[in-house]
Amino acid sequence: MLDLDAVENHDNKLKLISTLKLTSHGSNMYANTCARQRVLKQIQQKGGPRELTLEPNSIDSDLAGLLSRGPLGNLECLNLAFTHVTSACAKHIINLPALKDLNVRSTRFGDAGLELISEHLNQLEILNLSETPVTDKGLTFLANMKMLRKLNLNSTNVSDLAILTLQLLSNMGSGKSRFTQTWRLFSVKEKRNIIIYVIELMLYKFGLEAFNGSIVTLAINHYDEGALRSGISSNAFERVGLISGLNQAF
């Protein structure tokens, strides 16, 4: 990592900058160094910044280093989009008491990270998880985040049923009217299976694993009668979008 501040002589620093700009690689190094210095100045200002963006291609250790440079008690918005951070960075993010907006779009931030931030960042209001490896299991942790009002799950493997269930378990979304409209799209059998799935999630949440297995078996063994008569083994869970093997993931 290039550190221009390590060069004390001003003339030598100018010569170094001029030399760097002679090649495209050197120019990129200089641009990245300037970007880091701007971020550091934000962090070191009185009270700390309200918004912070990590440069692309940064990794978990880069974030940890930045967050250790100064006071961040006022930080409300953290943008980690298009970086290489993973769920491991959550242990640093949870030390931001005022954080309300977290963007981890197109990163490797997954279910383990969601579990940790759901336990500590109860004040989070906006969360962008688009293009991340989160699954239905990770989504169950978000039910604890009562302040969460905006969630982006574009281009993820999260099922529609899990999203609907999250709306049922929390106050998140666009309100009761939207949930009611969505609910009307399902048949009676599909509604029954959704309710069984919600019960499963609640049992899992409270650690009742023994009952959890019984409920899942009950749900999976109840097929659509019309489909059975026609010889088609159609699982009502599958018809409403539940991904295969969700319980095994739990």
UniProtKB/TrEMBL annotation:
Matching SUPFAM superfamilies, A to Z? Answer: RNI-like
Instruction: Note the Pfam families from the entry.
Output: LRR_6
Q: Please give the InterPro entries that the UniProt record associates with this protein.
A: Leu-rich_rpt, LRR_dom_sf
Q: Indicate what this protein is called per its UniProt record.
A: Uncharacterized protein
Gene3D superfamilies assigned:
Ribonuclease Inhibitor
Task: Give the highest taxon in the source lineage.
Answer: Eukaryota
> What is the source species?
Rotaria socialis
